[in-house]
Amino acid sequence: MLTATGSNKIVIAYFSMEIALDSAMPTYSGGLGVLAGDTLRAAADLAVPMAAVTLVHRKGYFRQKLDSLGQQSEQAEQWQPEVMLEAMGPIASLRIEGREVRIRAWRYAVQGLHGHTIPVYLLDTAVEGNTADDQALTDSLYGGDSRYRLCQEAVLGLGGVEILRLMGHTGIRSYHMNEGHSALLTLALAERQISSQSGAKRAAKLSEVDQEAVRRQCVFTTHTPVPAGHDKFPWPLVRQVLGAERADLLNKSGCCADNALNLTFLALRFSRYINGVAMSHGEVSQGMYPSYPIRSITNGVHAHTWTSRPFQTLYDQHIPQWRTDNRYLRNAIGIPLAEIQQAHQRAKQSMLEVIAKRTGVKLKEGVFTIGFARRATAYKRAALLFTNIQRLRWIARMVGPLQIIFGGKAHPNDAPGKALIRELFEVGDSLKGAIQLVYVENYDMEWAKALTSGVDLWLNTPQRPLEASGTSGMKAVLNGVPSLSVLDGWWVEGHVEGKTGWCIGNPGSEVSAEPEDAVQEANSLYDKLETTILPMYYGQPSAYAAVMRYTISLNGSFFNTQRMVRQYLTNAYFPDEDFVSF
Predict the structure, then answer these.
(1) In the prediction, which pLDDT does 52 show?
(2) pTM value?
């Protein structure tokens, strides 16, 4: 039996390029970072002996500015870690491009429900003695060119392993790579394995025994279902940044393909447990990497973080155990429908007040409100709802009025994503007087809390099978908000037609990896709004409230990070333990 006996007994190290720890800290860009933060919050609640490693990102991802035409511009975030974080004394050293780069760490403590804390070490190269360029290596999240990115990933993976050692965390049994950005930690473990060999001459490459020793320590979660989304670096750049000795070690250990280093491939090769983030994503990933066994652990969200205050009060009254054990949310099926409606109405009022204050747009409380907020990129298809604007106008006029809230950033280099935001602004202008549309600027954790709790329906329209999981709809279900979504990612598992929400397209389409026709999907979306959702919302409010209640009971009780972390503990971190108690 394995038990946790104190914070000094760290046995799991969680690495992620981005982690959403606090809305005032720009250390995340979107879903990957929010998932990482939720993972740590749930692990703290469960008293898991874990530490986490990320970068400090002094300039963050970027602050989004939108003009009246929807044209996006970017501003660097500026925050001072010394204001919010604890400075740690040890300084690590990493050779990059032949120079010694000094790395310090800031500590953030994630507090659990029962007092357990998980230390998060935010690595920082803004250290005296480093060159100006090296001091900027931990500034920008997903910024710069390939060289900058590889240097960052060396700091995260190689520097992170050294920082943990300097902090005294020498008993780590599982290194969890949340996406491939931190895969160079396997190189650090390989070097440690080689250095432990006796004899005057160390091996120049890893033997099979050495490789297996590294694998026994590593867990890898992949989030990207398309090959283009994985970091690859040309071999000359790898030699330039890491040095000839490290590059040769990687090469001789079979980590070079097509004259490039693929960080995902590196993580796959040196992990004992590999998983996708939903059942369907696990299947897609297995098809992408048939030589490796890909399992699946479906994502979740941290229930306490994402449940709005009105619903927290409601759950405290009817399900007092829900915070410590999210499975008790199953009992929401016994909450009176009128109380579900009242809690939602208060959450909606709060959202509308925030929107009016920050955008100047006054939406109507009694109008059916659709929410759509995620990264602005082509495959998310934010404009699918406007495939047939005339039909949408007719639905709003003849079936029931509606209003729509959008949010999301486009990557600075994603021209199609920026064009998509401009298109939504143009559509909004053309619909004035018929359908009110608002696009909230600089979508972040605080906006996510407001929207996922206050809208009446959460819309998700990815091009299947490109949605690895998606967690925004999971946040919505904790607040009784049902989804209307393409059957992809988590919704394949969470969808019960007419109970937890509604699907777009053919209900049996998840068995195929081929995307459906976009026009047909749009027609399905309109059909559901016209014949089912709006008539129920306006004509049978108790029936709609019943869907909201089922959403909480069936999906809120499962799609949470408490369940997810428990699965990682038993399946990934300690699969050979008879019993794990945290």
Answers:
(1) 98
(2) 0.94
